[in-house]
Amino acid sequence: MKGLGVYVLKRIGQALLIMIGITLITFILLYLLPADPARQIAGRSATAETVENIRRQLGLHLPFYEQYLRYLSSLVQGDLGRSYIQKTEVTELILSRLPATLLLMAGAISCELLIGLPAGILAAVKRGKFADNAIMILSFVGVSAPQFVVGILLLYVFAVQFGWFPIGGYGTAAHLVLPALTLGLLGGGWYSRMMRSSMLDVLRQDYIRTARAKGAGQMRILTVHALRNAILPIIAMIGLDVGIFMSGVVVVESVFGWPGIGQLAWQAIQRVDIPIIMGVTLVAACFIVVGNFLADVIAPFVDPRIELK
Amino acid sequence: MALLSIADLSVSFHTEDGAMSIVEDVSFEVGAGEIVGLVGESGCGKSVTAMSIMGLLPSDISRIDKGTIELEGKSLLDLGEAAMCKVRGDRMGMIFQEPMTSLNPTYTIGFQLIEALRLHRSLSSAEARGSVIEMLRLVGVSAPERRVDQYPHELSGGLRQRVMIAMALICRPSLLIADEPTTALDVTVQAQILELLLHLKKELGMAILLITHDLGVVAEFCERVLVMYAGRIIEQTTVEELYARPRHPYTLGLLDAMPRISSPAGKLPTIPGIVPSPGNRPDGCYFVERCAHSSARCSTKHPPLDGDPPHQFACWNPVA
């Protein structure tokens, strides 16, 4: 387990470098933005003098590198800054929104896996047959349909027409179903395609023939011998997926009025509220780093040939 | 009654290029406790024959067109998949050419051996583990108590093949099918594995169907030989008879092509031409285009496998 300690330290070091890189890139992008935050805060009718005052207050008149170093030094102290518009600490805003997003993420990933994995396995087993073709067409639709369309469609059918679920908002399990499903259909499409190809690859292997030769039935071969080998690329994919998920969450939280950090980000972008945009980007980066880390740590437990390095 | 008897077995593969017959009218028997060699070049249908016996042909592209396969008097082709699962691994076991890839990399060898045993015997985990360790010792794996908890990637090729043998024999089958079991191994390890199989045969009394392209292995190891060419058995007899008096020109060619210590230096004799691929097989004898003894009849009518047992051959103009 000493090896694991060293490994974790190495990964944390890497993560810190990644995070610093991300703050720099985001900062540059926001600096280059033609929109002027001071003007946004001051409002349309404000005088040039007021705008200039606000700019000085926020330190936006400083040269780029100085602004960035100031941001970085307060970041090191755990201070993400204050929202320009809401006048609240960004950390506080994000923490109050985080549980909702984490809940949505858990629901969405469950949906993705519950839809994607069985569909992919079924398609692989029924390769070339009707079920395979149907699943592949559906997952293609799932992958290509824009989330706001899927979201609105689900809302219209299951909330408006059937009235099975609330139209939007947050609070009960019923509120979670449609947003999680919207994200899950897209991810499910990806996972079913990946699971299918991974499974087809594994089913061709010699050890599957060995398992059959010793008298294992089809079900046992799929669940015991094939699945464990086929699931590896999926685990790595889930780690990456957390990142893709963060972009989806902005859209879906807006469509469903889900009070998570995606909605926070969406509002902040509209009003050029730089501290919030920076904060949310950092949180998203954290998610990706942690997701990948977990995927890498789990992999050796599934396949003993993999070593943590 | 023979342990394994195969009659008129024909197998075809159905691909996008159409149907191709791979194995044609194959008939042979393996007696209890007998070691029979099945020899032939790559692609002659040896492995397909073996896979037909095991019921492991890929169901989406292959079809058994006719014939019967009986093991211990039970007609295997009439069994459903569930019943076939009960026979596989229990009454017959199989080992393969590639020990490096034939074990599941994500499970310990103990898990895989215990599974093979518990699929067919109701034993507790502890009992099964005991039998597995005993079996590993029998196949010559040192420190089996430690090895059971290792993963395949921690074992050498020779050890993995020993584990495969242990797995195939753990339920004490009456038939072991060994498909080129030593081809992928080092020469020294090859000899060890073959000796092990002989030793186990004495110990456990199972019959062995040894599939190989190596006539040297057959000479050392088998009691009887079946020679296959282009999907058909063209000669079968005892090992002594085959080496002393081969009757089919193809068998003669194979024997001549074997390097011997006594043979003069220089090029080895070869059989001219190539094996006709499935779908391009000639009308008469499939060997006609490469045969030095062919006559007019050879290119019109296929010779049946004929002659007084134990020596039978399919040739119109056999070598004297």
Would you kindly provide a written description of the structure presented here, covering whatever features stand out?
The complex is a heterodimer of chains A (309) and B (320). By secondary structure, chain A is mostly helical. Chain A folds into 2 domains: 2-76, no CATH class; 98-270, MetI-like fold, CATH 1.10.3720. In chain A, 79% of the residues lie in helices and 0% in strands. Chain A has 13 helices and no strands. Chain A has helices at 2-32, 37-42, 48-58, 64-76, 90-125, 130-144, 147-161, 173-203, 206-213, 218-230, 232-256, 261-270, 274-302. The two termini of chain A are 13 Å apart. Chain B is of the alpha/beta class. In chain B, helix 6 (157-169) runs parallel beside helix 7 (187-204). The model of chain B has no long low-confidence stretch (mean pLDDT 90). Classes of the chains: A mainly alpha (309), B alpha/beta (320). Chain A binds chain B through residues 127-128, 205-207, 209-218, 224-225, 228-229, 302-305, and chain B through 54, 56, 60, 81-82, 85-90, 93-94, 96, 98, 101-107, 115-116, 119-120, 151, 153, 164, 167-168.
What's a quick, concise take on this entry?
By secondary structure, chain A is mainly alpha-helical. Chain A has 13 helices and no strands.
Keyword list:
heterodimer; A: 309 residues; mainly alpha; 0% strand; B: 320 residues; alpha/beta; 11 strands
In the predicted model, the low-confidence regions of chain A spanning at least 5 consecutive residues are: none
Helix and strand content put the structural class of chain B at alpha/beta
Count of DSSP strands of chain B: 11
Structural class of chain A: mainly alpha
Shape of chain A: globular
CATH homologous superfamily annotation of the largest domain in chain A: MetI-like
Mean pLDDT across every amino acid position of chain A:
88
What is the share of helical residues of chain A? Answer: over 70%
Proportion of residues in extended strands of chain B? 15-25%
Mean of all residue-level pLDDT scores of chain B: 90
CATH architectural type of the largest domain in chain A: Orthogonal Bundle
How much beta of chain A, percentage-wise?
Answer: under 5%
Total helix count of chain B?
10
CATH class of the largest domain in chain A: Mainly Alpha
